[in-house]
Write a structure and sequence with these properties.
Helix content: 25-40%
Largest sheet: 6 strands, mixed
Oligomer: single chain
Distance between the termini: 32 Å
Length: about 425
């Protein structure tokens, strides 16, 4: 591998590491899904479902249209190969990796589970009763907990939110695991009912776990700075990250490189390439990416690699949005060349392109290739037609490339910001800052 890389070369390494530099398979089964999941190492979960659930999207980006039921069978099997954890925020990880995040669960317990005046300690009667219910009855949804059954009740009359909070805290602390979902609603179980005993019995020491996670981040990214590698798992302990990188350099797994244009405090930024990384001569991808794809989920990295300034506008009031409620980055070739805000109108079986925008440097065939991706996306979501709005500097190009598309007026809609998947008292930024 070269000791000095251009940004374009770093992009190609990164896309190859993420499985976006190769042709999509003609058929997609369990093997192809597992390979893609292994490359990423984790699959972020998000509750927004305006087009497709976010955890379905990275596989679509890499493999094309596939049967999401096949992914559900992998993720939610009776003895699943994957399990939910607080990894890169809420995410699926291989069940064997549960032990790698024990250091994070310890930090969460110390922050949220020990304070005498905190929620967890002041609601111990609820917590104990919920824990007993799971031990007695097995996996349950929050609504199935006997908080309204006077005969079974062992404490005060609790409402749904209190039970949900207790379950979420127990999940964050590792006493409870997710045993699947009904729709998008979690089913909770004691960890020993979901995680194999051989995994539960081998928690990894903090330094060992962080070193292994940094190694995996380097492999998944191909090339990156210390901030990149730390963010892959939201590890905020910079000393531990620095020591892990040093150990991996000494072991020959990471190789220092310079990426021209990457700077820190006015000087060339330190970066490393994984020893197994590949630098393709050319990348000719065409994909729609979720905002929570590893390629773009760290906004600083997206800016450095693609000169792509990306923010999600789901929390922005509609009149102030620049690009749309939930715009998806568009990858053409080896660059992010645009963004499209998509919505699945299932009542009318129509894929709505609510807005479409170009970035600098798009190739001449960008509209045609994006149109093809939108057709594939509509087929994947079982939508019969595509309609394009008038908002954005790319919409006319798209309509010209899709003569079959209809037009619509994407009036400002009262989109609702997504609800959190964890206890209301637990702030995502705080959780990310713990380690």
């Amino acid at each position: 591998m070269k000791q000095t890389l251009s940004v374009a070369e770093a992009r190609r390494i990164a896309l190859a590491a993420q499985g976006l530099a190769q042709a999509r398979p003609t058929t997609v089964g369990t093997r192809q899904l597992n390979i893609a999941l292994q490359r990423m190492g984790t699959l972020q979960i998000d509750s927004v479902n305006v087009f497709a659930r976010s955890h379905y999207m990275p596989l679509f980006s890499r493999l094309g249209a596939y049967d999401t039921a096949a992914l559900d069978r992998l993720l939610f099997a009776r003895r699943p190969a994957y399990v939910e954890s607080w990894a890169h925020v809420a995410a699926f990880i291989p069940v064997d990796d549960w032990a790698l995040f024990e250091f994070r669960r310890e930090d969460l317990r110390a922050k949220y589970g020990t304070a005498a005046d905190g929620w967890f300690q002041t609601h111990r009667d609820v917590v104990d009763a919920v824990r007993d219910e799971l031990a007695r009855r097995g996996p349950l949804r929050p609504a199935e907990i006997d908080h309204t059954d006077k005969a079974a009740r062992r404490g005060p009359w609790w409402d749904w939110d209190v039970v949900k909070n207790a379950l979420e805290y127990l999940f964050l602390f590792g006493e409870v695991a997710i045993a699947g979902r009904r729709g998008f609603e979690r089913r909770y179980a004691l960890a020993e009912h979901v995680i194999p005993a051989a995994v539960l019995d081998r928690p990894q020491p903090r330094e060992v776990a962080i070193r292994e996670l940094i190694r995996r981040a380097a492999r998944a990214y191909g090339v990156g700075t210390a901030s990149d590698l730390a963010d892959y798992w939201r590890i905020k302990d910079r000393r531990a990250v620095t020591e892990a990188i040093g150990d991996l350099v000494d072991a020959g797994e990471l190789v220092p490189v310079t990426v021209r244009g990457w700077t820190s405090a006015g000087r060339p930024a330190k970066a490393w390439v994984h020893r197994d990384a590949v630098l393709p001569r050319r990348v000719d991808a065409a994909s729609l990416l979720t905002p929570f794809d590893p390629v773009v989920w760290f906004r600083d990295r997206a800016q450095r690699l693609f000169d792509f300034d990306y923010r999600i506008e789901i929390y922005t009031p509609a009149p102030r949005r620049r690009f749309g409620y939930y715009s998806l980055p568009v990858l053409i070739g080896d660059d992010l060349v645009g963004r499209v805000d998509l919505k699945a109108d299932r009542r009318r079986s129509t894929l709505l392109v609510q807005s479409a925008w170009w970035e600098h440097g798009r190739p001449a065939d960008a509209a045609a290739r994006l149109a093809d991706e939108l057709r594939i996306a509509a087929t994947w979501q079982q939508l019969d037609t595509i309609s394009v709005s008038g908002w954005g500097d790319a919409v006319d190009d798209l309509v010209a490339a899709m003569p079959e598309a209809t037009r619509h007026d994407a009036r400002a809609e009262a989109d609702v910001a997504p609800s959190s998947d964890h206890a209301p008292g637990v702030d995502e930024a705080e959780v990310a800052a713990l380690t």
